Structures
1.
Amino acid sequence: MTDSQDSTLDPRSSPAQDSRSNRGTLQFIARQAMMDHGLEPEFPPAALEQARAAEPACGDGGVRDLRDLLWSSIDNDDSMDLDQIEVTERLSDGAVKVLIGIADVDALVPRGSPVDRHAETNTTSVYVAGNIYPMLPERLSTDLTSLGPDVDRLAVVTELTVAPQGEVIGAVFYRALVRNRCKLAYRAVAAWLDGRAELPHAMAEVPGVAEQIKLQDQVALALRAVRRDQGALTLRTIQSQAVFEGDALRDLVPDDMDQAKALIEDFMIAANGAVARFLEAKGFATMRRVVKVPKYWERLVALAAEHGFTLPAQPDPRPLNAFLSAKQRTDPVHFPDVSLAVVKLIGSGEYDVNVPGQPPPGHFGLAVRDYTHSTAPNRRYPDIITQRLLKAAIDGRPSPYALDELRALAEHCTAQEDEAAKVERQVGKSAAAMLLQGRTGETFDAIVTGASEKGTWVRITAPPVEGKVVRNDRGLTVGQQVRVRLARTDVARGFIDFARV
C-alpha cells in the first residue's frame, strides 16, 4: 500500500475507525497476517489461468451414473464450496445404506499443476472475519469442483452400510457422476429437526427430501451413540461469527453446534474412518489426522478435581467424557469454558503417517483409531492427498506418494494449518476490538477463562469476546464470575484490556 492509497485501510491510521471501512481494515490485517505467517493471500497468475481454462469433468467408462438419486447437501447459509452430498436408503434387514459423495477435486487439480502447487503451499482455506482466502480459485471451489445444486459433477463415493445399533458393517468406494437435488442450510434444517420451525422452503420444493433428512438424522444419532460409548468427548467451545451490514461490522454472534451440523459431522467421521481402513487394507500408507494421548493428563486430573470429579491416573477418554457430560448437564452456562480448558490441555491435532501393519496413532478426542481427512478437498490439502490415494486404490494402481513424501507433507500440512489458525485468531481478536471501540469505561459481566503466570483472561457474553485483565487480577481463578470495565482496545494488534471492578 502506498501513501496515496486510502488510509482508512490502515488500522494504524486512526484510533477510531469509520464503520464503512470495517471490512477493508480487517482484510488489510488478514492479508498482512497471512504473509507474516508464511501463507499466500493471492493466487499466482498461472493458477488463475489454469482455473479460467478449466472445463467440467465428466469422467470415463469406470464412473457410475448416480444422478437420479435424491442427493442433498447441508452446509452454511452462504457456502458455495460444497464438498459433500448425501443420500440414504433403508434396507430390508433394518440397516441403512449411506452414500456420501465427495467432490472429485483431483480430476481438475492434477498433481504438480499451478493450482496444486498453491494449494500445497497454503494447505487450507483461511476463514477470517469479513473475508475468505480459499485454497483453490473460486472458479473451481465454488463452481467446477463444488457439488452445487442442479449441476452434474464428478464425485468419489463412500457407500456405508450402518446397522440399526450404529455400527458400520460394510463400506464400498467408487467414482460416480452425481447431481445435488437440494441445497440446504444448517440453521433451517436444525430448527426443523428440533421442532422450532416449519419445513424449510428448499426442502418442501423437492418431494422426498424431508424423509431423507429424517432418516439421515436417525442414522447419525446411532453413529454418535457408538462413538460416545467408545469415549468420544463431549465438547462445546464458543466460536464467534462476524455479522456485517455492507462493509460495517455490526456484531459477533456465537456459532454453536446444532443438530444439522452434528448430522454432517457424524457422517464425515464415519466416512473418514472407512477410507482409512480401506486404504490400509490395500496396503497404502496414509496421512492420518490425530490428537495424541494428552501430555498434560495430570493437569486434566487436577481440573476435574476442582469440579468435584475424579479421573484415573492414566489417560482414558471414557471417564474424561463422563466428567464433561456431567458438567454439561449441571452447569451449561460455564460448560464452554471447561470445554476450552480441556481442549487446550489435550492439545491440537496434527497429521501423521500410518504404515500398514503398524498400530495406527488414533484420535483421542474422537475415540477412533482410524481417521483420515478425506471429506473436504475444496478446503484442505490433506483431503486432496487422501483422494488421490483413494482413487488409486479403487483403480488398482500403486500409491501416487512415496512414504517419505507423505511424511514431509504431513509435517508441512500440520505447520501450515497451525499458521492459518493463528491468522484466524488474530483477525478474530481485531474484529472483537473493533466492535468494542468507543465503549471504553463500560462495565460487563464476565467469566474467567484463563489464569496463569502469563496473565488472566476473561470472556464477556455480549458480545462474546475475550480480553486480558490488566488491573486487579490477583486471586482470580478459572470459572469465577467477575465484573470488569473495558480499559483499552487496539484493533491493529487485536488487544482488549479489562480492569476488574
2.
Amino acid sequence: MQIEDKYIIQKCLDGETEAFGFIVDRYRQSVYAFAYSKLRNRQDAEDVTQKVFIRAYQKLRTLKQWDNMHAWLYSITANMCKDWIRVQSRRPDRSFIEDQDPKKLDSLSTEYQDNDPMIESLNEALESLPEIYRQVLILYYLGDRDSKEIANFLGISPTSIRQRLTRARDLLKEEMIAMMSKTYEAQRLPVGFTFRVVESIRRIKIDSMSIGKGIPWGLSLATGLLIAVIGLNTNFIKIIQTDTFANLVLSGESSVLETYAAIFRVCQNLSHSLFFQSIRN
C-alpha cells in the first residue's frame, strides 16, 4: 500500500520529522537525476538534491496542493540548479552576472564535470542532444524512473516521454546507451542519503496546519524497502535481528511512521562517525 503524500505532509506539520523521510525516499532519485541533467557532476547534484529537500521541508507549509509534491520539487530543483550555475560562473573573477540567457547559464554547467573519462565521454555525447532528450535519458537511466513517473515529475504526458526516449536513443549510438545504463547504475545516491536529510531537518520547526482526519494505513512496502536499504550496514543488520525490533516491525498494530521513528532512534544510539564512514565505504 503506497502512503499518500498528503498524509505524510500532515504528519510532518504535526511535528513528526521522521515522516519526511518517506518523501525523500519517494522523490530523491528523480530530483537527483534532474539536478544531474543540469549540472553534470555527481557530487554537485547530490549536494543540490540534499538542499532541495531541506528547503522543501522548511517551506512545507507554503505548499498549497498537497497532491502535487513532484511538481513542487521540480520547481525548487530547477531554481536551485540555476542559482548554483550562476554562483559558479562568478567564481573566477567575482564579476557580477545577471539577466543571463537560461540556456547560456545551463551550458556553463558542463565546465564542472566529473573527471572520470567514461563519464566525460558520456556527458559529451549527451551534450550533443537537445535538452528535452538529454533530460529524459538521465531521468530514466540515472533516476531509475519509468515513463509514467518521469511524466508526473516533469508535468508531461507519458506518451510524450516515451516518444522522447525513443528519439533520444535513436540519436545516440547503441554502445553509448549501454555505457549510460552501466555507468549511471554506479552513480546513484548512496544508501545513507535519506538518513542524512532527516538528520539535517531534525531541528527545523515548521508551522502546523490541518486537513482533517488522516488516511488510515498500516505497514507498507516502503518500510520494508527502507529497512532493507539501511540494513546494508552490518550494524543495522544486528539491530534488526533483535527480538524487540522484529516485534515492532512485524506487529500489525504498528504504523509505518512508528517503525520509521524507531529506526532513527536506533540510529542515534550508534556512533555517527562510524555510520557515515561505513556508508562512504
